[in-house]
Amino acid sequence: MNLASLAPLAVVLPLFGAAVTFVLLRQERAQRIVSIGVVALTLALEVTLLASVWGGGTVAVPIGEWVPPWGITLVVDQFSSLMLVISSSVSLAVLIYAVSQGVADGDHRDGPISVFHPSFLILIAGVSDAFLAGDLFNLYVGFEMLLTASYVLLTLGGTTARIRAGVTYVVVSVVSSLLFLIAIAMVYAATGTVNMADLAVKLGHLRPGMQLLLHVMLLLGFGIKAAVFPLSFWLPDSYPTAPAPVTAVFAGLLTKVGVYAMVRTETLLFPGDQLNAPLMVVALLTMVVGILGALAQTDIKRLLSFTLVSHIGYMVFGLAMSSVIGLASTVFYVMHHITVQTSLFLVAGLIERRAGSASIDRLGGLAKLSPLLGLLYFLPAMNLAGIPPLSGFLGKLGLIQAGVSLGTPLALAVVVAGVAVSLLTLLALARVWARAFWRTPDDAENPDRALLANPHPGSMPRAMVGATAGLVALGLALTVFAGPLFSVSQQAANDMLDRTPYITAVLGQDAAHEAAQQAAQAGVARP
Fold first, then answer.
1. Longest dimension (CA), the chain
2. Is-contact 80 4, C-beta < 8 A?
3. pLDDT tens, residue by residue, 25-68
4. CA atoms of 327 and 320, how far apart (whole Å)
5. pTM > 0.70: yes or no
6. Is 107 exposed, middle or buried (0-12, 13-18, 19+ CB in 10 A)?
């Protein structure tokens, strides 16, 4: 038995865990044990899936033994398995952080807080389903699972700010889902299928105008979910109001599922460079507008939300180049960004807990007060800024090399913007360090008032610190193992641009040959 045939368990296990934790609403300790155990087991399974496809060999798993393109097909390849492992690793760290925070604060599972564990596990199931989906409708189902769970998590506690942010988030998410659903209906009406491997063949038979319309509709839906400019206006106001662990998992995962969907559909369904120029413009604007917004912030969580938007631009840039090195750098950069951005949001939660505020105007002396907290901030901050030899630098270096190799004026302009944005990211994060960690508390504005805002001043439970430290260590491990990780990223990029391994795994060699002939007739060069 091929180990990749166990892929459905990556979705089933979290859903089963969600059901069990819902039954255990009144048993807090049992809930925590089940949640952590299920996520750890899911991670172990996904590591097995990654090992099974590490050296190549895309595997399609039809559900219920329905022959593709009929029925639901899950597809495991290097890209999807890498995303599964990184997302579950991050989710496990965030869950441990959240559980420790709940224990320290004496939360009781009465009222809305009682649904945290079921909602969190449903979100993980939705993320896994989206990464494995072999058809557009199942991808839509994965999005809706994770978005429905995120609505609950975002509004936990029922404060006015969270409800207001939740309303904005829900409205934007519903609009993006509606656009995606309309696009799926149009795709099905035009081709009679939603299976992505089948679409890779049948979309080539449509008129160019219809292909372009479907292409743009899907990009709009995914662009909102990925928070690319100008569709990113909702994110900085929605994420910072949620509890620290919720904000962290949102920042790490939700936008990256949108990026994953863009990469998968752009490479498989719409090969070539038809919309590469507009995507590069979007990438440039996303980088620049996001970092300018970050520089204007004094709240650490809002600042990180804007840097999150800014660095989505790097991923879109890599996708827009349609080259192996560009796409491989995007795959690597997504892994890096999920880990590092989540780490920084967890650190922001620790800062707020330790000092009573996340405003850099009201903070000072944290490096002396808690050297460990200073280290936990400094390492991922420098990684996000792209300081050599960290993984952020390696990912950006690959993107710069790809842009210079492409050599077009637009690509070179995005390269220049990328270098400038990296320096501005360093400036924004260094400003946090200088004001919150390095200056004396006497220089802060009303530090005593900030401390009064925290019901547990100075409290940093060991498990919260340990979970954050583990995630920071994972970010450093991406640097240590950058060689093999970039190698598998390059193989994943080559397979995605080639399309043959994916289509062959789902439909067989004849369909892959037909798709290759269509691409050749359309003038799409193979990598």
1. 73
2. no
3. 878 888 899 999 999 999 999 999 999 888 767 888 888 878 88
4. 8
5. yes
6. middle
